[in-house]
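Supplementary Note 3. Input sequence used for the single-chain structure prediction.
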Amino acid sequence: MITANHLVFNASDSGLDRRMIIFKFNRLVPKVDPDFSASLSAQISGFTNYLLSIPEEEIIQTLIDKVDESGMIAENELEFLLQTNSVADWLNNNYVYDRNNQIPIGSNKDEINQLFGDYCSYCYKTLSKMRTNKEFSPEIIRLGRGKLEKVKTSGGFVIRGLKRDDSGGVVEAIIRESYSK
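The predicted structure, written as discrete structure tokens, is reproduced below.
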């Protein structure tokens, strides 16, 4: 468990996003006892030992089933993803899900009518860290969580399931749907 006031991981952290349950600790505690730290330090080792003795299954069940009745895990995951992953941010701002539509992936950063060129243009405008062409389409498929697919056509590779629409929201909709199941 890690607690921090700001995000401490970024999109290049290998595989961490598959093992994280993100909770925001944003409740301000009122100043009641100015000597709270002194009284807590006498009890901290006992409290730590108690926390370490709780079975992992009980912690997971409490975090997922009890704490997340409001759906905050999905909200926190979405916020984290959009702040740290330029592909997710670009998709969410510019595309909607349309299972009957397909868009060429492309590999030229100057071809803005193709996905990779559009993504590169977005990264230049927003000063976001750009992924390489090799990482690009696998990341779109991963973010699509089974709804988007890479298909080879006579004109090259396309992503099926995306439609250009400035109202966006494709990543947000997919994440919300995956948590509602």
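The CA atoms of residues 22 and 76 lie 6 Å apart. The radius of gyration is 21 Å.
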